[in-house]
Amino acid sequence: MVAMVDSSPAIVGVVSNRQTVDGVGYETVRVRYLEALRSTARVLPLVIPGGLEQENLRACLSVLNGVLLTGAESNVSPSLYGGPEACPETLDLDRDRTSIAAIKIALSSGIPLLGICRGLQELNVALGGTLSSDLSEGEGLITHVENLAIPRDLQYARSHAVLAEGHGYIAQCIRHSQQNPVLVNTLHRQGIARLADGLEVDARCVDGVIEAVSVKDAATFAAAVQWHPEWFHKEDPLSVEIFRAFGEACRLHMIGTKLQP
Question: What does the sequence similarity comment in the record state about its family (predicted)?
């Protein structure tokens, strides 16, 4: 028997960040990500708290139609990819555990996945890649970290060009936006060092830094960008393309699950 398809929105889980403020623990997600999902991707966002046990996380993802891995102030723990020891204050181990597990569950279950900034780095590490802890240390690289002394909108303004390559999800979005190369913002100190075998490059910065990736042979949208498309998700043509493509994949996943006998 085939189930009836209703008008319910696709549901996307957003992995939260664990922060301590004045001695009190919080699970946090920037509102801009939720706004981008609701208004541009046209999906319903729900927060996935950090530190979930594996069975509870799997149960959570079983009712979701997509997963978003956001940016964050914290860094992926170097212990996960054999990097140098890092200051504990820069890490969020609960976020690491939840994101890495969510990536593996989503990919094995055919759930659409979009990573942003830290989310791209998590995706690379989850599939066996490594990270550079400070891109400014590389010869010939441009400055990728934001200037905290200027207003927020200027921090997220388009800063440098990226050029699409290959035929992955983000490369397609760049070409559909009719801009190649295209200007994107840049707010990251870390980045991909060794690309995971399961990923393909979708875009690079003009200095060679990998700026977007897709999962090879993925059953659905599974990709990540190093920049922040959520900040100007309504105005920027490429940001619109990325969130619309992700949202469409999530709706197709929802329809597919409802049509299961």
Answer: Belongs to the peptidase C26 family.
- Note whether residue 3 is domain-resident: no
Tell me the mean pLDDT in the region 197-212: 94
Q: Is 230 known to be catalytic?
A: yes
53 domain-assigned: yes
Beta strands (DSSP E) in the chain are 11-15, 17-21, 24-28, 44-48, 66-69, 113-116, 131-132, 160-164, 182-184, 191-192, 199-205, 210-215, 222-225
Round to whole Å and give the CA distance between 154 and 46. 29
Model-level pTM?
0.91
Residue 250 falls in the annotated catalytic set: no
pLDDT digits (tens, 9 = 90+) for 63-84: 999 999 999 888 999 999 998 8
Write down the catalytic residue from 160, 188, 228, 253. 228
Residue 228 annotated as catalytic: yes
From 146, 200, 211, 230, active-site residue: 230
CATH of the domain at 161: 3.40.50.880
Establish if 1 belongs to a structural domain.
Answer: no
Q: Which domain holds residue 120?
A: 11-258
